[in-house]
Amino acid sequence: MKENDGAPLKEGETASKYSVIINMILVVMKGFTGYLSGNIALIADAIHSFADVFSSAAVFIGLKLSQRKPDELFPYGYHRIETLVSLLVSVLIIITGLEITWNSIIYILNPASEVSMATASLAVSLISIGVSYAIAFYKVRVGRRIGSTALLNDGKHSYVDVVSSILVFLGIFGEYMGLHGFQGIAGVIISVVIIYIGIRLAKYDVLTLLDACIDRDSMEVIKKTVLSVPGVEGVHEVRIRRSGPYLFGELHIELERGLPVDKIEGIISQINSRVKEVVPSIDHLTVQPETVKREEVVVAVPLADNHGMESTISTHFGRADSFLIARTRNGEILDYRIVENPGKSLKTKRGIRAAELLKNENIDVLVIEKLSEGPELLFSDYLLGTVPPEGSSLEEVIKNASMKFSG
Length: 407
Known about the structure:
The protein is α/β, with parallel strands linked by helices and 407 residues long. The chain is built from eleven helices and eight strands. The strands form two sheets. It has a five-stranded mixed β-sheet, covered by helices on one side. The longest helix has 31 residues, at 7-37. Keywords: Membrane, Transmembrane, Transmembrane helix, Transport.
């Protein structure tokens, strides 16, 4: 599958850059007004916004680095940097919640006695609420569109800024109206919610870094999409993992026996195209084709002599005296017969003649250590597979071979 070209990450990089600039403006506004008015809450909010500058800058750097092309040291690319930055932002959200809790408790114990420059302070708080909400909405929208958890978390962090500015506004207004300690009580309640959000986001990032299966919806969509492709009989062992904004996947598909190589390649190509349409965040999908396992399996074993189940297994395919052909179900032998090898007396192409016989007998599995090039080519698009003889008796060898390919 064609790798993503990095355009989504570029959009996220732009969003985080705007966030840095806007937060710096808010820091100056709140810090200057807080300094002149002596409003501790507004100064604390300015410091909080200054921390947001570093948060958005970290996201910017993370998205910038994650656009680097894969190399020998990082063959899957640098997308995990974006997840590491996301975890950092999640931790900052938790720290912010703890900080608001601490400041709120202190404020409850020591409420302000008077408010100076109330009108200017309230105006700056209102501007901060509106601007913080706008930038938070923008970052979350871009983050969802490009699948960037770092930008999403930074956007949610900005929503925390909205709450913080609302608390500052309510605190100033409440103190102005004579409700001493009001800001502190509201702050404690909101900070608990903030800490909870930060813990949830951090948990998601840690699970992503550990390759946990956290995107089950995408997995189910991929399964249904693959099964809709003509020629696919089944799908199993579907695995996906997130790396930054992208998903890497692998799966096994079951195909009918005897499909030519070009047909199989066409099915795999169609799977990649359809999956990319329904799950655009897929960066790479590895598809492993397999033949369909069946209830009844016909097993063929080359024999050096003909003594029924007491026969000796031949180590040479073309020179075998005969072949035991057994019909099995779930590893149990239903019936068997022994047919003579028509190629054993030939001077050349003995293996080809024996392979033609077994192909006409509709066998599924051949017990043999190694096949020569001619028979192997003849069986390449036909057999379920070949297996070496495993077992202390002919019967045990047949049962073991059958179990490997039974449904």
